[in-house]
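Bumping with the actual sequence this time:
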Amino acid sequence: MRRADRLLQIIQILRREKGPVAGTRMAEELEISLRTLYRDMVSLEASGVPVRGEAGVGYVLDDGFDMPPLMFTANELEAIMLGARMIDGRVDDALSQAARDAVAKIAAVVPSELRDSLINAPLFAPMYQRPTETTINMADVRRALRSEAQIRISYRDLNGNESERVIWPVLLSFFRNASVLVAWCTLREDFRSFRLDNMTTLELLPERSPKPRRTLFAQWRNRQMDQLESSRSADWKVEKIYGV
């Protein structure tokens, strides 16, 4: 890697992290020695980049520093194209079109020697089974997630039982043959996963969710981690008792 490219990569590492980054961690990612990293950090400081380092803590990039936003590497362009190809056919038409538009915008501004890495990226994510079609508009679900709006849905469970619920959307997951909305269910007073193809109606309500989506997501993720740890603990007990 050229030194100029390496300096840009150091800035990118610092930009993507929310806290201090240890020098050893950056050196390992860049596949350079710690001494080389220290020299690069001195060069960045000398050139006016607002990086700060503290022994035993790591390096941080001060707020307010700006860098040209479209300085992509070949790996980054391949990742972008793979992501665009992965959502094709898995999401609503509006989001699929947005992905194609985004790729076109990037292709128009990246250097010509990198454009082929984007347009002809040799990475594909074939889909052999299209998700079950839904009667509700997935764009409305995404709109509710962005605005943190509550949703009223009519839902049919796997046993065919129908119910009406008010939910606070948390995240939307895309699987091979179904799209699933994770939400706090006010009826069950707990997190639940709802298949979009089992929703018969969906209405965005004017009220916002009482809790920010970020908070709900953190609570849901912690719940998942606790369940995972409990499952691992149970498996360990089975192995210890029965020797399986």
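The tokens above came from a reply further down the thread. DSSP finds eight helices and seven strands in the chain.
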